[in-house]
């Protein structure tokens, strides 16, 4: 009887350890993704402000398989003017690749 309890305790510890490791890895990945999106958003906002003289509001994003970031949203003050912008990481820098804004 004691051997069964020890076996179940050992299995429980292994499963719990596995869950904690997976959870920690996932949280670390999500934190890195949030930081990457925040940096890409800043680069995109600065670029559009300089090139088009408008402020933008980012509402959504996609991370492409090649590591690019597509940001979507609208021009501040005019939700009908949608935009999308592609930001790529080049070494430690983020650069705008392509963008489009509705007229």
UniProtKB/TrEMBL annotation:
<keyword id="KW-1133">Transmembrane helix</keyword>
<keyword id="KW-0472">Membrane</keyword>
<keyword id="KW-0966">Cell projection</keyword>
<keyword id="KW-0969">Cilium</keyword>
<keyword id="KW-0282">Flagellum</keyword>
<feature type="transmembrane region" description="Helical">
    <location>
        <begin position="7"/>
        <end position="27"/>
    </location>
</feature>
<protein>
    <submittedName>
        <fullName>Archaellum component FlaF (FlaF/FlaG flagellin family)</fullName>
    </submittedName>
</protein>
<keyword id="KW-0812">Transmembrane</keyword>
